Structure formats: structure tokens, C-alpha cells
Amino acid sequence: MAESVTRMLLAGHGGGGPLAHGEDVTLDVDQVLIEDATGSMACMQFEALGAERVVVDPTVLYVDHNVLQIDDRNMAEHHYLRSFCRRFGVRYSPAGNGISHYLHLERFARPGGLLVGADSHSTTAGALGMLAVGAGGLEVAVAMAGHGFDLASPRVVRVELTGTLPDWVEAKDVILELLRRHGVRGGTGAVFEFTGEGVATLSVTQRATICNMITETGATGAVFPADERTREWLAAQGRDQDWTALTADHGATYDDEEHIDLVALEPLIAVPQSPGDVVPVREVAGTPVVQVCVGSSVNSSYEDLATVAAVLAGRTVHPDVALTVTPGSRQILDTIVRGDVYRDLATAGARMLEPVCGPCIGIGQAPTRGQASVRTFNRNFPGRSGTAEDRVYLCSPSTAAATALTGHITDPRDLGAFPPLPAAPGPDPAVVDGLITEPLPAVEARRVEIVRGPSLVPPPLPEPPPAELDGRVVIVVGDDVSTGDMAPDGAIGMSVWSDIEACSHYLFRRFDPDFHDRAREWAGQGTPGIIVGGDNYGQGSSREHAAMAPLHLGIMVVAAAGFARIHRRNLVVQGIVPLLLAADADRERVSVGDRWHIAGLADAVRSGAEELTAEVDRGEPIALRLLLSRGERDVLAAGGLLRRTREGDRPPR
Amino acid sequence: MAESVTRMLLAGHGGGGPLAHGEDVTLDVDQVLIEDATGSMACMQFEALGAERVVVDPTVLYVDHNVLQIDDRNMAEHHYLRSFCRRFGVRYSPAGNGISHYLHLERFARPGGLLVGADSHSTTAGALGMLAVGAGGLEVAVAMAGHGFDLASPRVVRVELTGTLPDWVEAKDVILELLRRHGVRGGTGAVFEFTGEGVATLSVTQRATICNMITETGATGAVFPADERTREWLAAQGRDQDWTALTADHGATYDDEEHIDLVALEPLIAVPQSPGDVVPVREVAGTPVVQVCVGSSVNSSYEDLATVAAVLAGRTVHPDVALTVTPGSRQILDTIVRGDVYRDLATAGARMLEPVCGPCIGIGQAPTRGQASVRTFNRNFPGRSGTAEDRVYLCSPSTAAATALTGHITDPRDLGAFPPLPAAPGPDPAVVDGLITEPLPAVEARRVEIVRGPSLVPPPLPEPPPAELDGRVVIVVGDDVSTGDMAPDGAIGMSVWSDIEACSHYLFRRFDPDFHDRAREWAGQGTPGIIVGGDNYGQGSSREHAAMAPLHLGIMVVAAAGFARIHRRNLVVQGIVPLLLAADADRERVSVGDRWHIAGLADAVRSGAEELTAEVDRGEPIALRLLLSRGERDVLAAGGLLRRTREGDRPPR
After folding, report:
1. Chain B touched by A349 (CB under 8 Å)
2. CATH code of the domain occupying B268-429
């Protein structure tokens, strides 16, 4: 049978063949990516698994998030993570080497491989023709211990690209076009596979921009073929040997198809407060702007920064605008320093930041309230910038550069002809090789002592679901609530991510400052809280803290109109039952304080029964559905994935 | 009469002639430096003065402190400050242009001038042969309005330099040698004037290192002659026209003299937790280190960074060490990017930070508790790094670089021969000229609207001292308490500096977390708090918040064994009476909660009576002294400098 690249990748990692509807496939994992923010919980859970050594190589831990160090906690975490890596055979990349996704692309990602990353943007590596999927920390820890990775078999959507991008239109506009079409839910359950003559016109880092942000559609991943461009790029990285051709069979079948004519695209922009709210730049042109930020795990490539430099060369940033520029990696930083790009940016007035995640997750550069900040980043969820009432727009480097010059949102085509790019000096691929530590030999590793500061608190361990649940609705939230509303973004909030008790104080704080105290009080009274959510509940970041914090507050079930993939799985592996509201309209009649009685909960989890009912103290019953794979039922019945793995019968693969 | 450079500078600015003992001289101000951290209070007070325009040009406001932007407050302050500058005719340098002291040296400081800066390290500009003095924000605001600057006439100490520095020994070791000799109090009331053949061996930025840290001795300032090195440096800055020769008359007399033989110096280091606790590096060599930070308003020059790069070139930083490097200015950043220095540092593994104050004031890069952080900075007061229980060492770039390589404190002479420095490309002096905004013309300026976010709260206004005081001792602190223990350092603490109510919660929190509530409660009961301090009370930063926060909590007097110059003056100008304990031993018998009755307080302020007595409810009376200049008495009697200036009879000069 003629196969897509995606199906080849699945088959090559134990996920071939026909699948029962709704079932998971357990995949063999070639590579693991961890970053420091999600990493401390992932690593503490790996320790709790009792495994002796990480068996997936490369497993790489990148410190790129919590690096501002506004108090002593960040560095204490770095020390923990470094000692963990030495103890268990993990490669460690300290702060300053770059953003995980760029670094991983440069040094480790390879065609044909399978990557699981404790970061939702791990999808970036799909640019190199690998299946790359984000997951919660515990699932990643289990994969590190060699148990494989469970994934709901995706539908594969073909995206045919034709033509070439016009001047001033960029890869960012391609992914924004997909977001314009699909919004933040339309990709759920899909892997987008790119084909067609337009593919060859896109560089690997342009492809990476598209793969990175595919997660904003709700998708599982995105895959590009491994072609001549891929080979050239790997050669420039000194990794010729990692190349292998990987293209779809002629006549391969797909679950769905669509077409993007690159020539027809124009500059697009996501307006506040969702990456799915995309409009042409010209529709919001003229909006005054106080800040422009270039970089993050998208649009921090050499070409991205060179584009901005070309626009700004010999000019200065508008005085009403603060411009920041973040290179994606130390290699990119070195390249822009050897060429003209760094100088052109710095002398134009840009604030040149370190190659770390930085403002993308609100770790520094929080803007003023209510004023427009234009960013080349991937998300603009409310408050993610570190500022309540922020107004963040997402666009391409060209649009950002034009806006930085004029002081208001500007369609870059208004600047006239596209300027010549400065000569590219080419990367020095070895620049971080001495700065990412190799795994210690096992004998030496066993002698390493783990360094554990007081801010690192092992996470809570769930119990199996109760036979029946008597709880109270503790909050009702709307559609598309992101995990950033559950575990905080920003330098202040993220500094407590290694301590779920501290984290739990931020849970839903933006919606209801009393949430934490109420949930805790009710759980203490024997009526645990029930969260009622809308569609796409838990979109965005893979942070499992968004499941651990409710667990810590005694919450056992979440009932929502729909769940985002990673968060749904995080709820399951952390022992919280994800229930679907059978009728979305029922949300309208749910109020905080309602008492729900759900009979047969544990039985349903064990038996696979899909229908449940919540008897409500002050209203009609609410019909609920419980859709779980066989593996998920086992996990929940065991009291979460940690117990299931530790006590279970599934050995390392 | 043969004059020193210092006396020439005083005389040239209205401060010549004989002075009555203990009296102030009012000086004509040529230049004003403000930074953003102290700036919002200074500017709000300038507004309260009711002046129409800043009359000192250049007055430059540099944004270099609160630039991490961990929430929306920093940027709201930048918007306020920028609009203030536009409204009142001030030059504005946004974040990213550099650290105020380096920038001011490069673009504005000039031989023969007089600079007042709202930052204690404003003394840096003494390197160019000017009198440069730090002060609190209100005194600076008053100077900006054209009322001159009151300074207690200093004693002038000649420091004769002979010989040349050996390899691996640097200007930092010269100032550390002075701190070794004098500690943090020995310079009080002095201007150190450097003379002798050794002067010509020191570059302007080496001189700046010495002048910057002279403030750590308690001194008023430091002055170098303007010589051929000065002329060359100004020429490289494109400012030949600003040069004028300025050297001491042959046979000039000084109040005191000392001698430093540069050849005899060795690498020195200040150990935790005072810049005055200086020992040879070899005495603490071998101490394990987790962090090395290069840069700040000292040791961020091209030569400093080139030295570190030369040591690190072709090697990598020890894996146990996080190394950060901060260039002093955008000009220096541009220079190291054009040469090899940036690349050598980055490829060795350094985290390359923006040219901002950063970790020096704990704005980022807070180290782990209890572990050694080695820094080329100027202060290591407890907690200044942003970490409680920090262990910060201060040293030269050579010592820092050697330590970064080995992972433990290292005498750089152990590395063998001093490495060749990379070729210096020379500065591009114009690199920030388009990025520091010029003053608007007056007509246009008057139309500018001030942008005032909710985090900007005008400071409290004091009342004249009461006829008699019935108060309670609210805290007793030891010697050398710094203003960092009164108004907080660090990214979190400094983000509230525009709001004294918020600031006041940090007052003495390190010593006593209940201080704020107790002081407020007792003041509410009609018994305002009395602070009892040791010697050198209020050393360090010029932040007037350290006086405003007590004022906000109802405190009217501070009784201490001795005061640091700037903080003492800040107390006076904010309407708090600085009393001296006549017998230091009396501190031993003071307890929190003691009730003091001080009769005749207002009379003493007005009359100049120096003897006062505190009747104590549960012990013997305590003898106090009130030493005030004529001008200070007028200020206190009027209820602070703001009222005195607004209502007073002293017109702008």
C-alpha cells in the first residue's frame, strides 16, 4: 500500500498496521527532549519510577526557560537538573546554548526518527522528517525509562504546497494561514504532512516555523519529507551521516487533504488573544505599538534575524517602540556575530537578548497593560506575556521589522522593495559541542549525588478513582482555556514550577482569585471540587502542572465540552478522570457550588462503559461520556501512570 | 596658593574660598545623571517642585536598572520617564544603550565639569577630571530645577600612584587595595585625588573603575587629572573639543596623603559580605564557585572584556560554573562584536547579557543560597544579588576569568603568562547618538502629556519636626547597614520602587519580617517608631526610598552611631532628623519597644543646639547629638527640601 511519510514513521516505530478506533499505539522512542521548566517535575517523576538509567539516547535536557534567576530558585533547579543528568545518563545543555527546539534541530533531530518532548512545541523537529510529539513530563519520564510512548493514532492530513512565497511573505504566514483556516481546535487529532512542489522552496528552519506552530491548531504534529534541502542543511551542521531520504509513496492516501498556494499568501497576523484569530496585516495596520519582540522557538533562525536586520540596516527603531531580538541558539548567535546581522540590529537600537525562551513565555519583557506588543512568537494567550490585560499580536519577522520602524502595525509590503539580505557566513556547527555534556558512563553515573534544593518538592501521587463521586462544581470556565491559566507563565509564576503546592495558588487565578481557597476548603469537607470546562479545554503548553495542581487541590474529575490532546492525557496520567459533557448546552445550567453525585465512576473506568450521569442537587441530571482507550483505563484504574508503570506488568521495551 | 584639582573644581563651581567648619557649599551643576530605578521618584519630585523645565543641560536619564520587565510595571515606568523627559527637556536613553556610568563617560562627561547623579556610583565620571557626586533623587531634582547642589565641603586626600601594574593585576585591585586599607567607612567626607607617575599608566576606563568604587569607602568622590590619556580617549569618542588639561598645581596641599606602589599590588578579592573585607585572592583560592559574573558599572569596558576573552579563548568555562558577561554600553557591545572578543566569550560558554545593570543589583542571575558567586561588581552587601544568604566575592576580570576556567577561586597568576589581548577594533562613538533622544524645544515640550501608570505613586511629603517627640524604638540594627536593607534590591523588589507604600514592606525585612506592621501600628497609636542604628548607617546605594519608606511609616528620627553621607542627606531632605548617639555604647542598652521622650526637638533644629536627650521609660537617659549645617536646619525646619525649595526664598541660580 502506498504510504504517507507519517504512516511510514509510525510503522517504523511499532505503530504500523490497522488500529481499533480510539485505541493508542505504543511507539518506540528514538530521542527525548526535556526543557528545564517542565523538566524538574519530569525528572522527579523519573526518579520515582525507580529506573536505574535513562535508556533513550539522545535524551537531552535543555535549560532555556527559567533562566532570569529573579531569586535563588531557578539556579537551584539548574543544579538539580544537572545532577539528575549526570546520575541518569542524560545530555545537559546549560542556559545560553539556545532554545531547545532550535538546538535539537541543529544537533540531534534526524530524518526517520521519533522524538517525544516534554514541551508542546517539540513538534518543531518534524521539519527534518521525523515524527515529533509533545507530551507531559510523566509520559516523557516513562519513555525515558524505556517503556515506549502511547499515542492515539492520528489522522493524517495532506497539505499540498504550490508556488513560492512572494517577497515580504514568510513561512510564518503559511502557518498563520493554517490557523486562519482551522483555528485553535481544527487540527485536533491530526498530523499535517506537507507535500508538493512548494516544499522544496522552504528551508529547514522555515519548515520548523510551520511545524512548531502546528500545535496551535490542536494537532499532534507536522511532518515534512526529508529531501535535498534537508540533506544540505544537515551537511551544514556537519551531520551528513544523519541524512536519509524520506518521501511519501506515489499515490499515498491521506485522511484529509488541503492546498496552500504560496504565491497567493499575504502577510498575516494573529490578533489578541488567540493564535487562531488570524487576519491580514492590512486589516489592523496603523495600530500603535509599544513593543516589538523578534525570536522565540519560532522565527529565531539566522534567516529570520537577517530579514529583520536587512529592514533595519542603517535606520533606527521608532522611539515609541522597544525592540528585542532573541537568537534561537548559540550557533545562530555566533553566525549573526560573524556576519553583519548582529551589528545591524544592535546599531538600529534593538535590545539583543540571550538565546533563551525569554519574553515568549513572559520571562522578561512584559509589556504595558492594554498596549499592543507585536511578536514573532507562537502564542498570545491572555497573560502569557507576564502582563495581565496584555494585547499581543503574532506575525512574521518582516511584519515585526516594518512595525518596529514605523511605530504602528505595518504591512511590510508598504516598505517597497524587499531589501538585499546581508551575506550569510554559514553556521559553525561545533560551537556548542563542548558545551552540551555527554552522558556519564554508567559506573561513574551511579556515584553521582542528586542535588536537591528546598524549592524542589516531589509531586503528589494520585489514588485510583472512587467508586462513586460526591463533589461540588468549583469553577465553570469557557472554551479554549489554556494551561497558562492553570500553571502560571511569567518569570514570577514559573519560578515556582518545581513545587505544586506553590503552583496551585495560580490555578485559575485570572478568572477567580478565590478558586484555590475554595477548592481546598471543599475538598477538606469531603466534597472534592469538579472543574467544568468548555471546548478545547487545556490548549497550549504541555505543562503537566495544569493537572498536578488540581490533583493537589483534591480534584478527581474534569467535565468539559472537549479537551486539548496533551492536557487530556496529562489529566489521565495524573489520575484525574476527563469526562465529556454529552450536551454542550448543559454548561449553561451549571453553577459554582452545584453538588454532583456520579455513581459508578470506578466501574466505568474499569469496564469501558461510556455513559455516566451526574445527579445534580439543584437541577436536572447531566449526561456525561467517558471516552478512554484501553491503556488509559488501565492507567486511571491503577491510580495514574506512575503507579501503573511502577507496579505494572509492562516491562521496558 | 597651589591648588589641587579637587579644589579647582570646587572653586570653578561656586565652592571656592574658606568654609566654616561643617558648613555646606552650594555648587553650580553642569550635568545631571539619572537612572530609571531612582529616576521615577526623582522625576515625580521634580514635577512637585512646579518648575517649568530642567535648566541643566545635559541632564540625561538612562534606563538601565529595571529592564527585565517581570511584570507590566517596569515598562509603565519607562513610559512615564520618557514622557517626563520629553515634557521637561531631558535627554532619554532607553534600555539597551548601556549602563549609565559608562554611557555618561563616553558621551557627556568632560574635564572641569561638575556632575550630580541620582546614583551613588556617579563618582565614576571623576575619571575624566570632573567632580562627580552621587545624591538622592530629590536633591538631584532640585539641582535640575537650577537651585544648585549643596555639598559638605570635603577633605581632599592625595593618592600618589607609582610604578605600573604587573601582569594579571588590574585597576580593580587598586581600588580593592584602598578598600583593604580604609574599609567601608574610612573614606567618609573625602575626595580622593590621584596623582603621580602611575596615573599615566592607567586608561580612562581603568580610572573609572577606581572612581566608581571609591564610593564603597564612604567617600564623596574621586578625581583624576585630565591628561594626555584623557585627551586620547575623548578623541576616540569624537569629542576632542571636550578636552581641557586639568592637573594639580605644583606643590598643591592636601588634607591627607597616601601612596600606592602599583608594582607591589597583587590580585585582591572582597569576601562576603562587604566590599571592605578585602584579602589577597591566594588566601581564598580553591573555594568552589557556582557562578562568575563579569560586567556592571565597573569592569564592563572593552579592555575588561577583552582580558576575559583572552583568558577563555579556545577553552570552555568549567561545567560547574555559570558565567555571565555584561558589556558596559552599546558602544562597547558593538566594539566586541566587531573584534574577536564577543565570539571568544560566547564560544567559551559565556551567557552574553544586555548592556544593563543586571545581576549587579540582583536584577536577574540570582545565585543559589550559600554557594560562592564571584563577580567583578562593586558591592556584595547581603541579599543584593537577589538571593537571601548569598556568598558574593568581588574581584578583577582576570581573577574572574581564571575562576570561571577552574571552577574555584583562582589567583590568575597561576595560569602562567598573561595571554595576548585580541586586536582592538576601536570604538564607533556614534553608535548611540541616534538612540539618545535630544531635549524637545520648549514650545513643543509644553504640549507633551505625562504618561502615568497606576504603579507610579507620588511620594509622601514630610512635616516639620515636632516640638517634642514621644516615640518607641522600633528596631535596633548594627554597623554598616546598607540602603539595600531598607529599599529592596532584586528584580522583584525593585519593581515596586515607584510606590513607597509597596516599598515600605521591604524595609528591614531581612532583619525582622514584622518590622513594617509594628512600625505602622505604633505610629497609628501616636508613638512613631524610632530607628536605632550603628556606624555607617545607610551605606551603599543613593536610593532615597530608604528614607521615604521610614517616612511613610511615620518615623521622624533615626539615632545612629554614624551615618553614610548620601543616606544622611536623604533623611534630612525627606524631613527625618538624623541624630547621633553621643556614646556608641548606649546602643547596647536600647531595646525594641523602649519609649523615648525627646524634648526640644524642633527648637534644636531651628537654633542649632547640638545636645539633646532621650528620656527612656525603662532605663537611663540617652545623650544625643544633632549636627546639622545651616542649610540642613532650614530644610528640616521647613519640612523637607521639597517644601523648602517650593516655598523658600532661594531662587534658581
Report:
1. yes
2. 3.30.499.10
